[in-house]
Design goal:
Order of helices and strands: HHH
Shape: elongated
Largest sheet: none
Mean pLDDT: 83
Number of strands: 0
Helix content: over 70%
Number of helices: 3
């Protein structure tokens, strides 16, 4: 029962993040707003966040394996799945960027 509750909480959290991102979405502008982060900065932040998520997952798994108190198996599994999903999402973003670059390079001039 605890796993179902954790999964539901995770899904609600992801939906809230999606709603927040959709609310912030603005039309594409020709010039970036002053003080707005560049694409490379945003991509770097995303990579750092994925790395951080993977480290937390690894630390939780190690703590559970060592028998430290207060670490539940469901928490370890959820952290592991978060790390996996975030890495897969980052990989898909990378694949889309590579594909877009290849498409642009193949355009006739």
């Amino acid at each position: 029962m605890s796993q179902g509750v954790e999964f539901n909480r995770l899904m609600l959290e992801m939906r809230a993040m999606q709603t927040d991102a959709m609310a912030r979405a603005k039309p594409v502008q020709a010039l970036p707003e002053p003080g707005a982060p560049s694409f490379s900065e945003m991509l770097g932040q995303a990579v750092n966040k994925v790395h951080e998520t993977q480290q937390v997952s690894s630390q939780m798994a190690t703590a559970f394996e060592m028998g430290q108190g207060g670490i539940d198996l469901t928490e370890v599994m959820i952290a592991s799945q978060k790390a996996s999903v975030s890495f897969q999402a980052l990989t898909q973003v990378r694949n889309k960027l590579v594909q877009a670059y290849q498409d642009i390079m193949q355009m006739p001039v």
